[in-house]
Design brief:
Layout: H1 2-32, E1 35-36, E2 43-44, H2 50-61, H3 65-68
Antiparallel strand pairs: 1-2
The structure holds zinc ion.
């Protein structure tokens, strides 16, 4: 009887671990992709260069950076 309980416990634990892993990883990825083009909802990493966004805005939409990414502040390269 003791054995069965142990196995059950182990299974529960494994389930929790499995839950924790991918979810937190997903969250990290989501947080890293926090620049969203307001026109096409394309997401960019927060470390993206301003130039890349400018090119996206211009090439894809013929718009200015501010129109696609209002409030964007370049964080890449900052200390
Ligand atoms: Zn876009």
């Amino acid at each position: 009887m003791g054995n069965g309980q142990k196995a059950q416990h182990k299974r529960e634990r494994a389930k929790n671990d499995a839950k924790k892993g991918p979810t937190s990883q997903l969250k990290t990825n989501e947080a890293a992709k926090n620049i969203v083009c307001q026109v096409c909802r394309n997401t960019f990493l927060c470390t993206v260069r301003k130039k890349a966004l400018e090119e996206h805005a211009d090439n894809k939409h013929g718009k200015k950076l501010e129109e696609c990414f209002p409030g964007f502040v370049e964080t890449a390269g900052k200390k």
